[in-house]
Amino acid sequence: MMNRIPEAFKPKLPQKLITSLKTLDQFDEAAFCAVHESGEQVNSVRFNTAKIKMNEGRWPAVISEPPFSLDGRIPWTRDGYYISVRPSFTLDPLFHAGVYYVQEASGMFLEHALRNILDLSLPLKVLDLCAAPGGKSTLIQGMISPASMLVCNEVIKTRVPVLHQNLDKWGFANGFVSCNDPRDFKKLVGFFDLLLVDAPCSGSGLFRRDAVAIAEWSESAVNLCSRRQQRILADAWDCLKENGILIYATCSYSPEENENILDCLLNNYDCESRRILLDPLWNIIETCSANAKGYGYRFYPDKLNGEGFYLAVVQKKSGTIHHSSISEKLQAISRKEASYLRKFLPDETLQFARVNEQIHAMPANLIPDLLLLKNCLYLKKAGIMTGKMGSDEWVPDHELALSTGLNPRIQELRLNRPDVLKYLRREDFTADVQTKGWMPVSYQEQKLGWVKILSNRINNYFPKSWRILK
Ligand code: SAM
After folding, report:
1. Can you name the residues that pair with 152 across neighbouring β-strands?
2. Cystine design at 180: which of 184, 219, 295, 444 (Cβ 3.0–4.6 Å)?
3. Is 385 helix (H, G, I), strand (E, B) or coil?
4. Of the residues 126, 156, 183, which should be mutated to test ligand 1's pocket, given the most ligand atoms within 8 Å of the CB?
């Protein structure tokens, strides 16, 4: 699972950071510096079990050409694996099909925290406030029940497309993407059961893989991040309902961004710290904040196979609970449209809703929430976009091809690796196929997008902005 980076790029850790960490229980300066100087890199992925099921830690037989070998499960996860060599993910069709997400191992601890703290069988309303590029969003989606909703928000406009794309690839119908400032969520008082704030931070936890982060690190940047983190939490606090859970996380080592923020929460808001049960073999360090004695969980790369990470959980004690009062109705879709779309998405728990000219599919219980979110937020994605009526025919959307709910009986065009790479580059290719019309393209049984088969050619509908350029 480890590669080495060249000698010339070995990082020099900021002495001021080391000094601040020395005050922490169980910080081992020598081992911490050594692991950073070694240049070791840990690679890991998390699988989308709605698309693929691992076979006792091995690729299932349907994947005849695995893109990488698995090097053991990440102990605090069910579907996260270390991988021995980092391949070119861009050239792996399974990556484009949303079969897995490339994610840092420590951050996947969110999975264990969620299992420990919440009843995940309930229909929960979840907000991932700082969501791009979508690693934790896709993790949450794989864990909450289908009738739950997940709003994935990203304030920085240029980071929204990658978040959107990653959720499209993941293929779940209960996801929404918004592009709002945290303060906009004040309009949704008492709405969410779970709020994740994976906060923008100084990034010291990623020093092993990002030499630029070392060069940019300063005490003043840490203090700036700490103030921003407090502001984000203050802005978002009201949207969490009474008894709701806040999970706060950073990839920083600095106490100013971790335990001190937890102290701010526990001292200024009516909430209590929640403890997470740990397996001692994992070597995750439980910390206690200096003032309010709140529990937090620290990940050090010298103690486990993962990067620097911090996570803490608090539960809101008092607050409001949102009651919807939306009387507006969405424009209905016709019976003909509904029965046509049912052929693609046969799951009757999904309902169709028209927004402008597009028809979206989502769990039926989320339709009233769609109206509310549409009124309060800049909504960029809502459930699965199925498609729209073109000038003379129904045009399916790319999201529909990647949906986990797509009818497996729909005839697909199976491609081999050379042709599928042409498809992903948006190039022309040929295939011997008799049926005409729209068809999903697949590779090793994983759908990748649409083609339209004409009598004399195949039109490639892989989205222009997604095409691989290598
Ligand atoms: N949760 C993401 C994941 O797992 O893929 C990573 C989130 S990253 C640590 C923090 C995110 O916060 C970034 O996408 C960043 O653009 C966003 N951000 C930056 N400034 C922010 C602010 N003032 N309020 C909310 N989010 C902010």
Report:
1. 128, 177
2. 184
3. strand
4. 156
199 CA from centroid of ligand 1 (Å): 6
Please tell me what DSSP assigns to residue 95: H
Q: What does the alpha-carbon distance between residue 440 and residue 447 come to, in Å, rounded to a whole number?
A: 6
Query: Locate tokens 């990470």: which residue?
Result: 309
Query: How many other CB atoms are there within 10 angstroms of residue 95's CB atom?
Result: 20
- Strands 446-453 and 437-443 turn out to be antiparallel
Residue-wise pLDDT for 352-400, tens only, equals 999 888 999 999 999 999 999 999 999 999 999 999 888 888 899 999 9
Per-residue pLDDT at 330: 79
May I ask the CATH architecture of the domain 413-470? Roll (2.30)
Question: b/e map of 24-45 (b: 16 or more CB within 10 Å)?
Answer: eeebeeeebeebbeebbebbbb
- Closest to 406 measured CA to CA, from 51, 79, 147: 51
- Which amino acid is present at 450? W
Expressed in angstroms, the distance from the first to the final Cα of the chain is: 25
Asked whether the beta carbons of 431 and 413 are under 8 A apart, the reply is yes
Helical (H) or strand (E) element with 110: helix 109-117
Name the pTM for this structure: 0.96
pLDDT at 356: 82
Q: Using DSSP, state whether 260 is helix, strand or coil.
A: helix
Cβ of 154 less than 6 Å from ligand 1: yes
Q: Which residue has the tokens 């900021």?
A: 14
Which residues of the chain fall short of a pLDDT of 50? 2, 5
Per residue in 149-200, pLDDT tens? 999 999 999 999 999 999 999 999 999 999 999 999 999 999 999 999 999 9
Give the CA dihedral 131, 169, 161, 214, nearest 10 degrees: 50
Domain regions of the chain by residue span: 413-470
423: its two tokens: 């498809």
Alpha carbon distance 446, 441 (integer Å) = 8
Question: What is the pLDDT, as a whole number, of residue 7?
Answer: 52
Residues above pLDDT 90, as percent of the chain: 86
